[in-house]
Every structure is written in C-alpha cells, then in structure tokens.
Design a protein that fits this description.
The protein has 153 residues and is an alpha+beta fold. 48% of the residues lie in helices and 17% in strands. A two-stranded antiparallel sheet has the order 1-2. A two-stranded antiparallel ribbon has the order 3-6. The radius of gyration is 20 Å and the shape is elongated.
C-alpha cells in the first residue's frame, strides 16, 4: 500500500543498511545525529512504508520490509547483543544470579540448555489450529499463527 508520507530518514537508513549496518544500529545512529528518539525515527520509517511493526508486551517492535544481505560480522554482532541482553534481563528480573551463570558456562550447549527455561518465565506460547481446504488440498492459517503474551509477575 503506497503512502504519500516521506520520511526524512529514509535515504540515511537505506544507505546505512546497504553498507552493512544492522537495522537497529542504523536507526540509533540516525536518531543520535538528528537529536530524536529511536522510536520517533522508527515511527517515521513506518509511516513512509519502509518497515512493519508488531506490538509485543506493550512495546512496538519494528522490522524492515526489504531485507539486504549482511556481512557475517553484522549478524554475529546482533547474535552477541541478543545473548548479552538476555543475560542482563535474567539477572535484573531476579530469575537467576551471576553465580548460576558461572555454574553453567562450561559449554555453549550447557549454557543454552540451562537458560532455555527462563524464556518460559517471560512468555507463554499459544498455537492456533490450521485448517485444510477440501477443494484445493492446501493449508491455511489464521492471520496470527503464534501469539506471544507477557505472563503476569
């Protein structure tokens, strides 16, 4: 659906991503340069039709419509920050202590196996049932296949 709104951040966003900068880093750099909040920049890009959004635990999560091929260093950095923020969330929320992290840091597999259960403390997963069309033999899903909801503390 084309939009008449043009974002002043669109060209900077596209050029940063083409250079191999991750989406979120590009938006943070643009926000810093323009003295705006990252949420304001994401909202502008959303209105201009450059990204989608989904509400998740009361917070908008933005992701781009077009995907570019990134160098390995970019996605490895994103993976590192994902785990770094996850460990920070575990400690600050009180689900585990630094000692528990230390006791389960012998191997990557041990670390992931132990801390997988903490995802369940944050989110619940509800699967929806798929239906099969008798005429075409194809499967169809409702608009949302899986819903994520925040558990009450």
């Amino acid at each position: 659906m084309p939009t008449k709104y043009t974002s002043p951040y669109a060209s900077a966003f596209k050029s940063a991503v083409r250079r191999g900068t991750s989406y979120n880093t590009a938006v943070f750099n643009i926000a810093k340069r323009w003295k705006k909040t990252p949420e304001y920049v994401w909202e502008s890009l959303y209105k201009a039709g450059f990204c989608y959004r989904q509400k998740f635990n009361g917070q908008w999560i933005y992701f781009p419509k077009q995907v570019w091929k990134f160098p390995a260093a970019t996605w490895k950095t994103s993976q590192f920050y994902t785990w770094q923020w996850f460990t920070e969330w575990c400690i600050t929320s009180g689900f585990c202590t630094p000692e528990q992290f230390y006791n389960h840091c012998g191997s990557q597999q041990d670390f992931m196996t132990y801390f997988r259960k903490f995802w369940g403390k944050q989110y619940t997963w509800k699967k929806t049932k798929r239906t099969r069309s008798r005429k075409t033999g194809t499967y169809s899903f409702p608009k949302t296949r899986t819903r994520y909801t925040r558990k009450a503390a």
